[in-house]
Amino acid sequence: MAKKFDLPQTIPVFPLPGALLLPRGKLPLHIFEPRYLAMIEDTMRTDHRLIGMVQPREVPGGAEKRLHSIGCAGRLTQWSETDDGRYMITLTGVSRYRITSEQEGFEPYRRCDVTWDAFTRDLGQPEKDPGFDRDAFLDLLSRYFEAQELKTDWESLSGAEDELLINALSMLCPFDPEDKQALLEAPDLTTRRETLVTLIEFALRGGDDEGVLQ
């Protein structure tokens, strides 16, 4: 596990709407844009192999999207190259970070100076949720999946540890980017679960997202 002193002060960032990475989570990505292919190749040459996932902000009339100030860095833990030069990668979440400034440079991708100070708990042991009513949560989740026509492995979900269950659903459920950002910024697992429940209940009252959760 990464220690705070191993974490670099500057990282490449990958703005991707709706893509949420959380500490200890795994995010598969298909990389095909030339600038992000260059980012992957540069990252593989570093010791830390970290890429910062971050939600972009839409700026009216702006050529370059602004970034939310908080993202989550993942270590490049799996990668393979296709015959036509694309990369299939997996990032494993390490820690959230706060952007302090964006660097100007010659790289085709964006790089930011970051601080990790507010997120030291991300480097610790998996979190617990002492007040978690698993039966009630799974009942709510079942109704949400049915309404949204989602599918999943219920046996795996019901047996998952608190953090794995809550974080995996936060990452995979088809919420809007701003809702994903709220899940990312939750200060602890209990708050994230409460936010997740609120989003699910809101969707049951009229959300129309569709998809398949596998």
Q: Which key terms come to mind for this protein?
A:
disordered C terminus; 214 residues; 8 strands; 2 domains; Archaeosine Trna-guanine Transglycosylase, Chain: A, domain 4; 6 helices; 26% strand; two-stranded antiparallel ribbon; alpha+beta
Quaternary structure type: single chain
> Roughly what percent helix?
25-40%
CATH topology of the largest domain: Archaeosine Trna-guanine Transglycosylase, Chain: A, domain 4
Question: Could you name the CATH homologous superfamily of the largest domain?
Answer: LON domain-like
Cα distance spanning the termini:
27 Å
Number of strands: 8
Q: For the largest sheet, list the strands in their spatial order.
A: 1-3-6-7-8
The CATH architecture of the largest domain is: Roll
Task: Determine the strand fraction and express it as a percent band.
Answer: 25-35%
Query: What is the CATH class designation of the largest domain?
Result: Mainly Beta
Number of domains: 2
Q: What structural class do you assign from the helix and strand content?
A: alpha+beta
Low-confidence stretches: 209-214
Main beta-sheet annotation:
5 strands, mixed, barrel
Radius of gyration: 18 Å
The geometry reads as: globular
By DSSP (H or I, 4+ residues per run), the number of helices equals 6
- Mean pLDDT, all residues: 90
* Strand/helix succession: EEHEEEEEEHHHHH
